[in-house]
Amino acid sequence: KTVSSQATSTDHIFLDVEKHSAKVRDQIEFVFESPEMVNTRFIQNVFEKVLLKHITATLDKLLTEKKTTEYLMQLHELYTKTTRLASKLSRPDMSSDPGFMSKLTKGTLFNKYLSFYSTSEVDHLQKRCSKMLAQYYESLDIPKRSQGGLRSRVLKVSPDETYISEDVCASIIYESKKAVCRCKELITDRELSDTVTQIYLKVLDMLCSEHFDYALDIVFSSIPSSQPHSAPSGQFFMVVGLINAQMPLIENLFREVIAPCIK
Predict the structure, then answer these.
(1) In whole angstroms, what is the distance from residue 18 CA to residue 154 CA?
(2) What's the pTM value of the predicted model, to 2 decimals?
(3) Rounded to the nearest 5°, which phi and psi values hold at 163?
(4) What is the DSSP secondary structure assignment for residue 10, as one 8-state letter?
(5) How far apart are the first and last CA of the chain?
(6) pLDDT digit of tens for each residue in the chain (263 aa)?
(7) What is the DSSP secondary structure assignment for residue 144, as one 8-state letter?
(8) How far is it, in rounded angstroms, from Cα 62 to Cα 70?
(9) Number of H helices and number of E strands within the chain?
(10) Using the 8-state DSSP alphabet, how is residue 95 labeled?
């Protein structure tokens, strides 16, 4: 009990748990002739009473406040720190169950959060990307695309605007990479393939349909309907050029990040 209360009194809970556990393990091995089960019980007690309290308090607060971005970052950070700590504390003679530490981590500490993690990650990515696009179009004073297109709603098209944001494209790619990075740590190989595929499809939808296709739609809308045989303007070719410049980023995302996770 003394060790547990001391560990929770600092912000460096994982470092404290590691140090206290090493100290107590030495004491257990000195006092008991068969210290394996005693040490196992001690580790289980620390995980269930110290780490679980810290993890639950941190993540539940963010969920209640609907701070999804911070929640996903904290979930990944806490899980990574916990698995690293479990690896350091694990010993071959600690339990007859070789998966003891893994079950303790995934089953006891994080099961509540991992059960809906995949859905949260994919939904969050879509919302983040959608918000980026909405802010970009708002800065141009044009409506964000909705189902069925927005050609009729775009009343004025600037001849100097391409309606393609390289910054937004890069940000969407970056967000998807962070999402996949978390997935690789937080879900099993069986779930990983499906979740990462969903992430990539969201990226394709946000960039190709919601952004690239919409830019072409806007430019086409500037061609007067009374001149159906008019040649595309220079603005059209500028847009096409920018779209082509972004495609290698999407291809690299698939080749370097997505494909290795798909089985």
Answers:
(1) 60
(2) 0.83
(3) 65, 25
(4) S
(5) 46
(6) 444 444 343 358 888 887 777 777 667 666 676 667 777 787 888 888 889 999 999 999 999 999 999 999 999 999 999 999 888 887 655 555 667 888 889 989 999 999 999 999 999 999 999 999 999 999 998 887 765 555 445 457 777 789 999 999 999 999 999 999 999 999 988 899 999 999 999 999 999 999 999 999 888 877 666 555 655 567 888 999 999 999 999 999 999 999 999 97
(7) P
(8) 7
(9) 12, 0
(10) -
14 touches 81 (CB < 8 A):
yes
Three-class secondary structure of residue 94 per DSSP: coil
Residue 233 carries which DSSP code? Answer: P
Angle, to 10 degrees, between the axis of helix 166-186 and the axis of helix 189-204?
Answer: 170
The torsion of the CA quartet 241, 245, 250, 252, rounded to 10 degrees, works out to: 150
Q: Count the neighbouring beta carbons within 10 Å of the beta carbon of residue 24.
A: 17
**Residues 6 or more apart whose Cβ sits within 8 Å of residue 213:** none
C-alpha span between 34 and 43 (Å, rounded): 16
CA–chain centroid gap for 126, Å, is: 11
